[in-house]
Amino acid sequence: MRTSMTSVTAFVKSLPAGVLVRLSPAERLALIFSPLAIGGGVVTVLAIALLGPPFTDFLGANLPLVRFAVAASAILLMTVPTAFVLIYLELKVIARMNLRVGPNRIGPWGSAMSVVHGLKVLAKEDFAPTGADVTIFTLAPVVTYLASIMTLLVIPFAPGLIGQDLNIGLLYFFAVGGLTVVGLLMAGWSSFNKYSLLGGLRAAAQIISYEIPLTLSVVGVILLAGTMSTNRIVLAQSGSLLDWFVFRQPLAVLVFFIAATAEANRTPFDMTEADSEIVAGFATEYSGMRFGFFFFAEYVNVFIVSALAATLFFGGWTAPFNWPLAYDLNWFNPWSLGFFGWTAIVLAVLVIGTEFFAVIVRLFGGREWSAWDAMGLGFLIDLVLVVGILGLAGFIAFDWVHGIFWFMVKTYAFVFTFVWMRATLPRVRVDQLMGFAWKWLLPASLLNLFATATAVVLLNR
Amino acid sequence: MSFVPGLGIAKGMALTLRRFFAPKATIQYPETAPDVAVRFRGRLQLLYDELGNLKCETCFQCAQACPVECIDMGGFDTRGRFHVHWGAPEMYAERREESALRRTGRPVPDPAYTHFDPIDTAAVDGILEEYDFDPGQLPAILESIQRVHGYLPVAALKRVGQVTGAPYAPTYGMATYYRHLRFEKPGHTVAVCQCTSCLVAGSGRIAGTLARELGTEMGRGSAAGGVALEQLPSHVPGASSPLVTLDGKSQPVTAAGAAAWARALAGKGVA
Description:
The complex is a heterodimer. By secondary structure, chain A is an all-alpha fold. Chain A has two domains: 124-325 and 400-460, no CATH class; 334-397. Chain A has helices spanning 2-14, 19-22, 25-61, 63-97, 113-123, 134-150, 169-177, 179-190, 194-225, 230-237, 250-263, 288-313, 338-364, 371-397, 399-424, 430-460. The termini of chain A are far apart. The model of chain A has no long low-confidence stretch (mean pLDDT 86). Chain B is an alpha+beta fold. In chain B, 38% of the residues lie in helices and 10% in strands. Chain B has a four-stranded mixed beta sheet with strand order 4-3-5-6, covered by helices on one side. Chain B has a two-stranded antiparallel ribbon with strand order 1-2. Chain A binds chain B through residues 93, 96-101, 104, 420-421, 423-425, and chain B through 9, 12-13, 15-17, 19-20, 22, 24-26, 28.
């Protein structure tokens, strides 16, 4: 790092005087970092070419371990951009429903807003109050966050794309998901603050209360599918739209959705935080990235319950109708091109595409584009186009790509509904919250369970 | 209206969904600036409090900001002493009230308004000549005018504005800022010496008593009833302590008799 920085400095010094001053900030960055990027790219390409085959052999010999490591890190890495996307979605959707525009300054249409927000949280002071139980105080966000994202291991994103296809997948999901409460209680207890403790207890009471109807509403699905494996529940719904469990378990869907809203601490059941009315509950004493982990866990939770709703009741990754187009792309063997062939193609597509769109931007861009800006925009357009074409090809050729597509469509439909509800519904009172869970949701889920069991027994006799 | 469970929720959700697609009310400010004239400063409006009193404090900030110096106002200061009503003379002359009415759209409650008296501006012109017609020298100019006239006549301030080009509002602001500058001709000037020997002899108590009895305060430019209370710059050589002067002449005032003396002066001095 030190050597690279000195080389950057030397490079900057070797430029003719006044060059940097005449350039825009973006141009300066590009000028300084482009040699680094090119050098890094060359090194990477060489490393892959020389070390790639023995390394892949090693990985192939330890496939189960590799599979686990990849699944765990992929899920860990996936949650951060997911949370960013969800936060951005929430800002933007609620703004639109309030007749506002929402974030629109940072990044295209303000899309980098939540990323900058995350960076800001990361840069804040990591603070523990005097008298706090620092160990537990530090562990609490970790427990909450891990309990949230570990449930993603059993979510089937696409055929074959599942962290671990456990035969007790749903049990695992609710068992691990229930650990969230432990994190909240730890946070409330260790903060050395009456309000935090009360907030933690309030959150625990709410989540435990709603855990029961949530779990019971799913039992009907388990009875119908005859398995607790999430993957096989999805397979049991494959076929067409009418095979989805939502049409056989409408009451369960309703109960599940309401309970999941409370479980994810979303309006109208966001009593744990209730940001406009009371102090932040168990997170009162938290700052910086520790608070950020609670925040992230909340949004990841929204994604997870949406994903689970899509998985259990809306067919998961199965398409709502049978895809009539079945192109066969097997005539093309990607290995025939070889490593250098692929490198050449990728470079050619990127360079030629970038230049092509840069020329178009400069000619028809409407205003004076500097060469660097035009190149940047051309690169972006090219990238979007290439990714779009590759995605379309993947959608046609690979079932996991369109599996992911349908899964995400369904999941984000639920995410949108959660945000939509937040923009619409007022918060319920805490006694209404508890009364509703015990007097209405629990009987309803029990009724659903008995009705399903009876139907299964009668029909299978 | 029949009760359907969840109907209200459905209605609300439908409303927010319609709003989601509705045109947005936000105006992106730096990109879309309102189309206003360069010298536009907003609509003038005089506000009244719940008791019907004009809230304007005649701070003259609006007059100072006005690019064409067309704003003027009248009113009393916080102690109910001055009546101020003057504006840019060359703009509206005798039609100030009318202009104020036209701009505010409300009657200006100003029953006590009286026009200022004209003065012979020769002395003022001489002072301005001495200071090279430099508005930067305004404090000294105003002090010199007060030294000549005994106070700051409105006509003199207007003359200063006309000749030097200094806007009226800052000139007025400067004249009101310094406590030794006054706008009304004092009938009498009572000066109390505050040197050490006089203070030992009780001039501090005398000053307090006089201020209370005359209804003014030490160093105020003018006073109700036309008696100004001042601090003597220095002790007059050979005079006895405590030293109190009335229009420059020494008076036999003691700490005990100050109240009676002040009452006698007020009875005599107020026309």
